[in-house]
């Protein structure tokens, strides 16, 4: 029974780790609910009335969710600075509530300052959020100057409760968070291997579904890798360790993606296009049974399952685990590969590379391992890893020049939100002189974390949709609660937890839970009615419209312009990584390829987010949606091959099978020039320079002097070929002319 319970607990932890990497959403929900519960536990016995309880609860919620810093010391300073900001803001809200014109002008000024404060980093963002939220808390609870001492006490309790829960009850250290992210990466990698096993066994009618699962789990693994990389500096003791972990995570990600491609190629009649793994909805290539005898397929299935077990292994290795690891690592040596066709042998090689990457990640994170049961192949892999670790050193990154004036995003957003809020105030007061601030809140919220005009309508639509369904839920919950204050507060806490747990996943769901919670708060404040909830929908719709109008007419950033700017950035980063990797593979000086690859991933992530308005299901421009998805998928393919080239180039000083070849620089030069040509074309429509096509890169290197420079592995050539093909493929959707080779 105990063993079964432990297995169930392990499965539950693995499920949570995979669905919520780092438990970030769970932590946010628990912290917020804990802070509110503690605030209520302190204020209720002290005799606070419902109004002060609600104010204290909303204060603790704002003080908890607004903190952005990662280091605990910085969080404490920001929380301390937030208290006086909150006191002043709520006091001004109470003092100005009876002076309509002056209060409205101050509201707009406060909104401008809160948004503009984002230019001063995480602390400026937090203080702006606290000031804005507490001003509207005062309007929500109807605070008056006579009641201010009681509200000051409630605010102080709210901030103190937030601090206690953050630093004592639900503490999160950078090191602990990195440990949980490691667990998430491990589980997601194992789930990707499970999807690859399903792809191996899928029949012709199941291939599309199996491929979609591989595609989805590959994307989730990449998402977790980026989260780990963003937390490395705070979660590791020094910069060399951070760079080492970053390298090992990248190795595991690339090796697992390469394994999936090899498996797909082995099951199809010809080598699978890398784009197949990156284009949502792309059909699987025609697949048949794995070539070769059934014994080879059974062996491959067994080894994939062994690889999954190796990934999931925790604690010290036993003799059985060591034997399994030795067998998988042995596939990195040609003589240990089974007798099979070349594509199937590639799959076995891929298994060996993933096993090596898993071992390297485990060594980097957990330190030296027991080597007593190592086979010669495992010992060689350890020696390679040790040599690579010794070769890693740090270089400083250059800081990009920031835009100034109205070109600065924070300034532009502050002006836009101020104009939109002014419209929302005027329209909101026409609907209701008491609840106008809901329109302003919606206008504010639809601007948060948006960077282009096209994102505003999508966010406004999602908020309105969630609000409409939340009103229905609020009506049902208000009827359920009746006059039971304790039950109402319990349900409020549950809804707040759900709000923060679902916020990163679905803006619509978050809006639903917010509105349902407000229905209960209105019940507690004895201001609940059907008319109030309907007014909530009307004010929300008005605020969304005001946000769209302001974004479209005031200093607009068109979605096309925004995506083009980000596309140029991605292409520049792609060019930098590709050129630096090829230079190093050609025998040139070593560069900081890890940071360049990370910058490429970040730029691609920004572009992917910016294209969401174009790829949203409600967009009427179907052709643009298809083009946007295709371009992003091609760029993800390019990024994969560039990362693989960078990882291979970093192996150059230590790996015996990779040698520098000066001919690579000339052979790959066409690809780098093409990337830059496309970037120039996207940045300036007047540019008409074509990209070049020509003989394959492999054919350019096929001469009799190959032995003079040492062996360039087939893997490098395959990545260069695929990168070149994907770059040429970008020309058509981006309307770049292609110059055919001259004969």
Automatic annotation (TrEMBL):
Keyword field contains Ribosomal protein: no
The Integral membrane bound transporter domain, residue ranges: 424-549
Compartments in which it is found: Cell membrane
A Pfam cross-reference name: FUSC_2
Biased segments, Acidic residues type: 385-401
InterPro entries reported for this sequence: Memb_transporter_dom
Protein keywords: Cell membrane, Membrane, Transmembrane, Transmembrane helix
Regions that span the bilayer: 21-44, 50-67, 74-94, 100-117, 124-144, 150-179, 436-452, 510-528, 540-557
Membrane topology of this protein: Multi-pass membrane protein
Region described as Disordered: 365-411
Family: Belongs to the YccS/YhfK family.
Protein name: FUSC family protein
């Amino acid at each position: 029974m105990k063993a079964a319970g432990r297995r169930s607990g392990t499965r539950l932890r693995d499920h949570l780790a995979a669905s919520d990497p780092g438990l970030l959403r769970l932590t946010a929900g628990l912290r917020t609910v804990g802070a509110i519960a503690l605030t209520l536990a302190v204020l209720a016995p002290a005799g606070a009335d419902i109004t002060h309880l609600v104010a204290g609860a909303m204060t603790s919620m704002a003080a908890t969710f607004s903190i952005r810093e990662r280091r605990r010391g910085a969080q404490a300073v920001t929380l301390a600075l937030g208290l006086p900001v909150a006191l002043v803001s709520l006091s001004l809200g109470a003092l100005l509530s009876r002076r309509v014109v002056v209060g409205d002008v101050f509201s707009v000024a406060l909104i401008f300052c809160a948004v503009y404060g984002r230019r001063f980093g995480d602390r400026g963002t937090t203080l702006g959020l606290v000031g804005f939220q507490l001003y509207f808390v005062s309007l929500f609870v109807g605070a008056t100057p006579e009641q201010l001492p009681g509200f000051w006490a409630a605010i102080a309790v709210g901030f103190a409760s937030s601090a206690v829960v953050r630093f004592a009850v639900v503490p999160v250290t950078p090191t602990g968070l990195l440990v949980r992210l490691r667990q998430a990466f491990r589980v997601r990698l194992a789930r990707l291997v499970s999807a690859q096993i399903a792809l191996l066994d899928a029949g012709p009618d199941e291939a599309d579904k199996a491929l979609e699962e591989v595609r989805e789990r590959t994307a989730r693994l990449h998402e977790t890798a980026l989260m780990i990389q963003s937390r490395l500096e705070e979660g590791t003791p020094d910069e060399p360790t951070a760079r080492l972990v970053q390298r090992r995570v990248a190795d595991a990600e690339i090796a697992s993606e390469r394994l999936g491609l090899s498996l797909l190629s082995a099951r199809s009649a010809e080598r699978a296009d890398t784009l197949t793994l990156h284009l949502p909805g792309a059909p699987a290539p025609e697949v048949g049974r794995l070539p070769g005898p059934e014994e080879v397929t059974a062996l491959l299935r067994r080894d994939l399952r062994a690889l999954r077990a190796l990934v999931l292994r925790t604690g010290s290795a036993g003799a059985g685990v060591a034997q399994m690891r030795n067998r998988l690592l042995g596939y990195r040596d040609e003589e240990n590969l089974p007798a099979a066709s070349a594509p199937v042998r590639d799959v076995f090689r891929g298994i060996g590379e993933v096993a090596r990457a898993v071992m390297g990640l485990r060594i980097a994170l957990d330190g030296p391992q027991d080597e007593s049961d190592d086979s010669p192949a495992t010992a060689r892999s350890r020696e390679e890893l040790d040599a690579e670790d010794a070769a890693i050193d740090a270089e400083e990154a250059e800081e990009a020049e920031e835009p100034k004036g109205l070109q600065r995003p924070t300034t532009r957003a502050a002006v836009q939100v101020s104009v939109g809020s002014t419209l929302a105030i005027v329209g909101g007061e026409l609907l209701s002189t008491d609840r106008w601030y809901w329109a302003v809140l919606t206008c504010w919220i639809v601007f948060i974390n948006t960077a282009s005009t096209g994102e505003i309508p999508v966010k406004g639509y999602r908020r309105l949709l969630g609000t409409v369904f939340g009103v229905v839920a609020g009506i049902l919950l208000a009827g359920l609660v009746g006059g039971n204050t304790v039950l109402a507060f319990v349900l409020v806490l549950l809804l707040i937890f759900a709000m923060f747990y679902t916020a990163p996943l679905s803006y619509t769901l978050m809006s639903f839970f917010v509105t349902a919670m407000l229905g209960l708060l209105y019940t507690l404040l004895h201001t609940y009615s059907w008319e109030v909830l309907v007014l909530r929908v009307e004010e929300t719709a008005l605020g969304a419209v005001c946000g769209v109008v302001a974004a479209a007419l005031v200093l607009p950033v068109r979605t096309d312009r925004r995506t083009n700017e980000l596309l140029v950035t991605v292409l520049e980063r792609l060019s930098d990584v590709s050129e630096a990797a090829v230079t190093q593979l050609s025998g040139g000086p070593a560069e900081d390829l890890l940071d360049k690859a990370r910058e490429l991933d970040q730029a691609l992530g920004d572009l992917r987010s910016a294209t969401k308005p174009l790829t949203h299901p409600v967009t009427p421009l179907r052709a643009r949606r298809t083009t946007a998805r295709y371009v992003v998928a091609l760029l993800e393919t390019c990024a994969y091959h560039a990362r693989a080239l960078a990882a291979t180039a970093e192996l150059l000083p230590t790996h015996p099978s990779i040698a520098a070849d000066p001919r690579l620089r000339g052979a790959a030069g066409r690809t780098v020039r093409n990337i830059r040509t496309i970037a120039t074309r996207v940045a300036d429509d007047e540019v008409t320079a074509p990209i070049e096509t020509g003989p394959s890169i492999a054919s350019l290197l096929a001469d009799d002097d190959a032995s003079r420079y040492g062996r360039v592995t087939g893997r490098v050539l395959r990545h260069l070929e695929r990168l070149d093909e994907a770059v040429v493929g970008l020309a058509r959707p981006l309307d770049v002319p292609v110059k055919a080779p001259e004969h």
